[in-house]
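Following up on my earlier thread - several people asked me to post the actual chain instead of describing it. Fair enough. Here it is, all 323 residues.
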Amino acid sequence: MQYPVQSILVREALTSPKIRGPNIFGRGRSMPSTKPPTIQRRRLAAELRLFRERAQVTLEEVAARLGWSVAKISRIETAIVGVNSKDLNLLLDLYGVEGERRTAILSKTRTARTKGWWDAYAEFVPSDYIDYIELEAQLAGMRSYNAHVIHGLMQTESYARDIIRGATMGLSSPAEIDRRVEVRMTRQRLLTRERDPLRFWLVIAEPALSWVVGSPKIMAEQYDKLREYAERDNVTVQVLPASAGAHPASAGSFDILEFPNPHEPDAVYVETMTANRYVESHAEIYRYTLAFDHLRAMALSPADSVDFLTQAAEKIMSRSEER
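Reply from S.P.:
Thanks for posting it. Predicted structure:
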């Protein structure tokens, strides 16, 4: 049997080590991506900036005393570049950081990436995805707009399985799909962990809810899960109805990532079919934040959104029974 050229190209693309990942659509992190600064680098950058401010020295003064350029110090403090141990010691000396605090910071820089549950999947998923999971695990909050698919942190197992199966166009084995679903379900513990659960604010467009994934039963279960999450103190769910009309996020979905250190600026994660992007420009982040605020204002209230989900579940099941 001969396959069309397009089919051959698709098969080659999806089986390429550079493309294959745990899931390539469905708010599940597709690869490749522009890699963000590591968690440790962001934290260290924020701490160094704080130490400098407490020492009441300016960037220009640090540059003059150490014989560096102001640009170099700025890049370190914004996590654009890392800092080697020699330069780090010079900065800590200048800022007067001593004792246990100094020891802890130096120890951080020597320690490899924090180990977590995700390391068990390193053999099966791309390193960029592992980096994202580690990043996600350290977040204090996330504001997310979903245009087409329900966010991976809120998907049911059945919904996730169908999304992943469809995204890989039937080229993944049942065992591979199982592992990918397992990863996605484990990520969801962020929302229910006992200590500092992730603050999650979701605005989801009505088309993402009306698109039937799997079956009416799967969708009804998905609506129920969204309602259950909406009852949690750390989760807010709002539905953007189709009647809301034009809005500032017509380009698609995005996540605003909030870090626990108040000195660390937010970042934005944008997912596309073939690549992902981390946005860390202050001007761009402001645009996304403003867009999200507009979406919140245009969406149904949290209470009305729960009612919407209840009615959606009832409607889809009644239509299914009529058939």
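Residues 1-26 have pLDDT under 50 and may be disordered. That should answer part of your original question.
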